[in-house]
Write a structure and sequence with these properties.
Layout: H1 2-12, H2 15-28, H3 30-46, E1 59-65, H4 70-81, E2 85-90, H5 94-102, E3 108-112, H6 116-121, E4 129-132, H7 137-165, H8 170-177, H9 195-222, H10 234-263, H11 272-294, H12 302-317, H13 329-335, H14 340-352, H15 357-388
Parallel strand pairs: 1-2, 1-3
Antiparallel strand pairs: 3-4
Helix pairs in contact: 2-10, 3-9, 4-7, 7-8, 9-10, 9-11, 9-12, 9-14, 10-11, 11-14, 11-15, 14-15
Length: 392
């Protein structure tokens, strides 16, 4: 009687022991521990690093002045005075400017055509040629934006002088040139920087991807060995694993949404209760997806390769990096099956844009539906693994 009872206890594998066994396996496995603990910490530093200065400024620039007039020299001075640009010198030809950019000495070039001053005062159309190092999107955009702004200001000065010569009063001339005054206020990104625009969404994607990799490696490494997963009900295995990952990722989420937001001065408008309530299905649905995905692999290296392969497409499909209108609709529909896609956009609305809970409630329910669906897939996957393992 005692032996039978003991066998039943060992076969039932109490839930808490299963959770502790998974936590031990996660912490003791170097590949999983580095991915989870090292990856979360590493990416919290790596991703925000390029955006610490918020926006690129003082980009090195060379000028090709083929006009060499008083107005072209004024344009060059205004270019150097722009906060986005730093004039490092003049060159004689466009090929010299190209060489300066290719060698890394400069990031942009401004070409002032011959007859620049004469044509402007005669009312003819003048084209300023600008270029930049397009290998770096932020640098290129800063160069182009700075040069376009300088060109517009110079054009207005020439028009202002022309209106004065025609007999217009200074105030009337200014008003005619600036008939509409734009007073723009940044609502959701007060600093107008890339930190508040990119980093919040990327941090959530890091949580998603590292969780998928960790759950994938843990499962793929166990299907070829004997263990509790062969003796215990698959649902119990799933719930224990969900609990183990939920415990770890609740701490990782607190680190990202708490300390990292504070350290990088990111906008946070959701309450603590709203964050916890929303992150719960986000973590659980991702963990369930990871467990279901792990049933597809029998090699520990494959989950990492697959997840890294889809990381960039997922980043674009979230919609905050690339407009969804430029992505095929079938891909958008299919992406809704990935917890990161609805989760990131809803969290950005809730925490960065200050949306009401009612605005993300439907997405919250969608995450719970994904959670239930992936649990079902995980149950089927583990049952299939048990039948075909040859270890029983």
């Amino acid at each position: 009687m005692t032996r039978t009872s003991s066998n039943r206890v060992s076969q039932s594998a109490p839930f808490l022991l299963l959770v502790l066994a998974d936590l031990k396996a996660i912490i003791s496995d170097k590949a999983i521990a580095i991915t989870l603990f090292g990856g979360v910490l590493f990416y919290s530093i790596l991703y925000p690093l390029p955006y610490l200065n918020e926006v690129p400024t003082a980009q090195q620039l060379v000028v090709v002045d083929l006009d060499n007039s008083s107005l072209s020299r004024t344009l060059v001075r205004h270019t150097d005075a722009s906060p986005k640009l730093e004039l490092i010198g003049k060159v004689a030809t466009l090929s010299d400017a190209k060489h300066a950019i290719e060698s890394g000495k400069a990031h942009g070039v401004l070409v002032i055509p011959e007859g620049f001053r004469r044509d402007l005062y005669l009312g003819r159309q003048v084209t300023l040629s600008i270029g930049g190092d397009a290998n770096y999107f932020l640098v290129y955009s800063a160069v182009v934006e700075g040069l376009v702004s300088v060109g517009i200001d110079t054009q207005k000065q020439v028009q202002f002088a022309g209106l004065l010569k025609q007999g217009s009063q200074p105030e009337q001339a200014k008003q005619s040139l600036n008939s509409v005054k734009l007073n723009s206020l940044a609502v959701f990104n007060p600093n107008l920087g890339y930190m508040g625009y990119v980093v919040p969404g990327v941090l959530l994607l890091v949580l998603h991807q590292t969780l998928l990799i960790g759950a994938g490696i843990l499962g793929a490494g166990q299907w070829q060995t004997k263990g509790d997963w062969l003796r215990v009900n698959p649902l119990m295995i799933i719930l224990a694993r969900l609990t183990a990952f939920a415990v770890l990722y609740s701490m990782f989420s607190a680190y990202y949404l708490g300390y990292c937001y504070y350290f990088y001065d990111l906008r946070a408008m959701a309450s603590l209760a709203q964050l916890g309530l929303f992150m719960l299905p986000y973590i659980l649905s991702t963990a369930a997806a990871g467990i279901a995905m792990s049933c597809l692999f029998s090699r520990r290296d494959l989950p990492t390769q697959v997840v890294l392969l889809i990381s960039m497409p997922l980043l674009f499909l979230t919609g905050f990096i690339w407009p969804l209108s430029l992505i095929p609709e079938p891909l958008i529909w299919l992406s809704q099956l990935v917890p990161a896609i609805p989760g990131i956009m809803a969290m950005l609305k809730l925490n960065q844009m200050g949306a009401e809970w009612s605005c993300v409630f439907q997405t919250w329910l969608q995450l719970w539906a994904l959670f239930a669906g992936y649990i079902l897939l995980a149950y089927v996957g583990i049952s299939w693994r048990r039948r075909n393992s040859g270890l029983v």
